Amino acid sequence: MDPIILYKIILAVVVFAVSLGVAAYMTWGERKLAAILQDRVGPDRAGPLGLLQPIADGLKMIFKEEFIPAQSNKWLFILGPSFFMLTACMTGAVVPWGSGLEIGGLYYPMQVTDINIGLLYLLGVVSIGVYGIMIGGWASNNKYAMLGALRASSQMISYEIAMGLSLIALVMTTGTLSLAEIARQQDEGLAYVVYQPLGFLIFLICAFAETNRAPFDLPESESELVGGFHTEYSSMKLGFFLFAEYINMFISSAVMATLYFGGYNFPFQHELGLEGNTLAIVQAVVLLLKIFIFIFIFMWVRWTLPRFRYDQLMNLGWKVLLPLALANIFITGLVMYFTGKLA
Amino acid sequence: MITEYLFWFLAFVSVFGGVATILSRNPVHSVLYLILTFFAIAGHYLLLNAQFLAAVHVIVYAGAIMVLFLYVIMMLNLNRLDAEKRTLIGKVTSAVSAGLLLLVMVGVARGGSEAGEAPAESIDAGLVENLGQVLYRDFLLPFEMASVLFLGAMVGAVFLSKKELNS
Fold first, then answer.
1. Which of B32, B55, B71 lies at the smallest CB-CB distance from A117?
2. Beta bridge partners of A102
3. Does some domain include residue A306?
4. What would the pLDDT profile of A159-218 be if each residue is shown by its tens digit?
5. Residue A231: phi, psi to the nearest 5?
6. In whole angstroms, what is the distance from residue A317 CA to residue A158 CA?
C-alpha cells in the first residue's frame, strides 16, 4: 500500500483514540476539579487518586439495561446519539497536531487532511451537530426531551452566526481557510489572538454555547427539564450523549489553540536545537498542553458561573455578540485598509 | 474509477432521498430524508471540485435552513398528520400541473444533453480564490444587488413578525 495512505489511516486512528482517551479522562478531571472548587475530595475509590474511575463509569454504562421507550421511534432514537457522536469525532480530521514527521526520506504532515476549506468544514460539522440532539429529543416522545431539543436547536443556530462572523475577521487577517496554513503563519509571526482579541473572545463564548456547557447548558438544565433532550436515554446511548460533549470540548479547545494561540508552535522553538521529528513530537505535546489549559477554563467556568435565563441567552447571542462580531469585521477591514495590507 | 462509483452511489442516495421525502407520511421523516438528499448533493459538488459550494451547501441548507424546518415541525407537533380529504377537482389540478412540470423538465434534460463537455478551465473554478474573483470582481454589482434584496427580505420579515409597532 502507498505509505502516505497507510500513514493517514494510522494518524486518523491515533487522533480518534486520543480524542476518546482525553475525553474519558476529562470526566475524571471535571469531577476532581469540581471537588476542589467545592472543597470536597472527589472520586478516590477506584485506583490511586480515583484514576480508574472513567473505566468503571464506562463499564457501568455498557452493562446497564438498554431501554427504548415504547412510544418512541426506535430507529431515530438510536440514530440520535450515534449521529451526535459521529459529528463530535469528525472535526479532529482538520486540526494540525504538529509540523510534520520525516520517516524514511518521506515527509508526513501531522494532520489527517489539509483541505483548503478547513474552516468551512469545521463550521459545517458544527452546524449539523445539532441534529443528533434534535432527532434524539424528538424520537424520545417526551415533553421534556422535546423542549430540550428545541432549546438546543435555537441556541446553536443563534450562536453559530456570531461564531461564523468572528471567523470571517480571522480569515480576513490570515487570507486563508486552511488550518495548516494558519498554524504555519503563526510560526513566522505572532499568535493571532494579538490581532483578533475581540474575535477570540466571541469565538470562545460561542464555543461554550455550541458545546452546551454551563452557563449555556439550558438544553439539559436538570432543575427545570429533568434531563433535557436525554431524559429518556439510558445505558451507553446516554453515555454517548455525555461523552460526545467532552469530545466536543476537546476539539473546540484544539481549534481555539490552533486558530488564536499559535497552534503547535511555541516561542523560540527554532532556537532550542531541536530538529525534525523531535521538534514535531514536542510541538504535539505543546499543543496538548494548550488544549488542556482551554479545557481547564471550560470546567472552571462551569463550576463558577450560574446558568443563564433563556431570554438572557438569546439577548447575549443576538444583541451583543452578533453586533460585536460585525463591528469586529468592520474594524479589521479598516485597519487592513489603512495599513495597506489589502492586496 | 472510484469517482464513477461515488457518483453512482451519490446519485442513488439523492434520488432515493428525494423520493422518500415526498412519500413519507410523517413530516419529520420527510425533513430527515431531505437532509440526506442535501448531503448527497454536497457530495456531487465535491466530485465536481466545487469544495466551497459543497461546504456552504452543508452549512446553509443542511445546517441552518433544515434545522429551522425541523424546529417548526417539532414545535407545531405535526407528527400525526392524517391525509385530509382531497376533492376531485384538486386531484385533477395537481395531476395536470405536475405533468406540465415534468414536460418542462424532460425538455430541459433533452436540450442539456447537447451541451457537450465542460470547458477545461473549470477544473479549479470552484476553489475559494477563483469564486471570490468571479463574485467580487466580475459580477460585483449583481452580487451586491442580491445582498440588498436579502437585506430587504430580512427587514420585511422582522417588520411582519412584530405585533405592535409602537411598543
1. B55
2. A107
3. yes
4. 888 888 998 888 888 888 888 888 888 887 777 888 888 888 999 998 888 888 878 877
5. -55, -45
6. 6
CA distance A83 to B70: 16
Give residue B158's domain range.
124-167
SS3 category, A109: strand
User: Tell me, what's the ipTM?
Assistant: 0.79
Q: Which residue in this structure is represented by grid cell 461515488?
A: B6
Contacts of A146 in chain B (CB under 8 A): 74
Taking a C-beta distance cutoff of 8 angstroms, is the pair A78, A66 a contact?
Answer: no
- Domain presence at residue B8: yes
Cell numbers standing for residue B72: 417548526
Task: Please count the structural domains in chain A.
Answer: 1
Other CB atoms within 10 Å distance of the CB of residue A298 = 22
Domain boundary residue among B45, B60, B80? B80
DSSP per-residue string spanning A129-170: THHHHHHHHHHTT-HHHHHHHHHHHHHHHHHHHHHHHHHHHH
Alpha carbon of A203: minimum distance to chain B alpha carbons (Å): 17
Into how many domains does chain B fold?
Answer: 2
B106-131: average pLDDT: 67
Structure letter (DSSP) for residue A96: -
State the amino acid at position A84 in one-letter form.
F
Closest residue by Cα to residue B67 from A7, A84, A132, A10: A132
Final residue belonging to a domain, choices B80, B109, B141: B80
CB contacts < 8 A, A to B, total 63
Contact A154 B71 (CB under 8 A): yes
Is residue A24 one of the residues assigned to a domain? no
Length reported for chain B? 167
Which residue from A116, A127, A153 is facing B59, i.e. has the nearest CB?
A127
Mapping DSSP to helix (H, G, I), strand (E, B) and coil, where does residue A307 land? Answer: coil
- CATH number of the domain encompassing residue B73: 1.20.120.1200
- Alpha-helical runs (H) found in chain B: 2-23, 27-47, 51-57, 66-76, 88-112, 128-133, 140-161
Could you tell me which of B22, B38, B18, B26 has the C-alpha nearest to residue A138?
A: B26
